[in-house]
Amino acid sequence: MTQEKAVIALFDRSRKTNDVQVGIGDDGAVLRDGTVLTVDTMVEGVHWDDKLTPEDVGWKLVAVNVSDLGAMGAKPAWALLAMALPSPLDMTWTERFREGLFEALNFYDLPLIGGDTVSGPTRTLTLTVGGKAAHPVLRSTGKPGDDVYITGELGLAAAGFLDPAPTPAARAALCRPTPPVRFGVALAESGLVTAMMDLSDGLREDLATLCRASSVGAEIDPAQVPGAADLAHRFSFGEDYQLLFTAPPDARSAVESLSRSQAVPIARIGRLTAGGPVRLLGASWPAPLYTHFPPGPR
Ligand code: ADP
Ligand code: MG
Predict the structure, then answer these.
(1) Which of 2, 97, 240, 255 has its CA 20 to 30 A from that of 57?
(2) How far apart are CA 230 and CA 155, in angstroms?
(3) Domain identity same for 237 and 128
(4) What pLDDT is stored for residue 291 in this prediction?
(5) pLDDT above 90 as % of the chain
(6) For ligand 1, mutation pick of 4, 5, 12, 24 (most atoms within 8 Å of CB)
């Protein structure tokens, strides 16, 4: 478990109320009426540097949040924006950030309905996004024997961040991620999938999270995972904003036809097992490339 996860556990004092179906621990919380809520923060110098333009930061703030909603099977319906901006205000930066933000809000078709604006030492941007899911899909409901799938390719954002001269696709993955939100909703509504989450921390970390939540193990064939040649980039960097989902083997042809009809590429990369480790066949998992709280003196 990362230190970040250990901190989250400190705050997990969730008790069931009549209004809440799913509390802390999934990509979003689910209210009794099917409303799904998620919040994500981006801090300058932590979540972005000058590889991202202000427009890119605006786009990405929306993308990382709708990614979590899509992974729950919820269509984003509204957003709230909280900004801490250093004083004196840099209006040029702020207007350029707004351009990218609204470009993404329009792309995913959701209105900004409120927020908060304060001064702070470092640009810190928080977006809260909500929407409805008719059939929310959790991380905790994968079953032994289920197939494991991902959408798209993994490790492109890693290449965008780490390569001195990234390809346009790698740059776009880092700066303008486009999570397959509509496909997540379609998968959820199809009733084919058993568990789903988005890939934000890297397949190594996120699959371990899904398996822990579902009390299962997994076997993954690295040769079936499309993406960066470098295994650490592909499995242990993160920022993929693709979907990780599971479905029983008898759903294969229906899952594949949904992928074709939505033009979202998928790969079947392995299966869930009854207990046991989360294994990469023929290789060991590369070490994580990033942590929010590296070990150090207290
Ligand atoms: P994701 O990467 O999908 O956004 P995280 O791994 O960041 O998910 O968070 C895991 C779970 O912990 C989520 O349900 C999230 O809402 C919850 N969480 C994270 N930080 C806090 C916090 N400070 N207080 C309460 N819940 C939190
Ligand atoms: Mg998530």
Answers:
(1) 2
(2) 8
(3) no
(4) 76
(5) 90
(6) 24
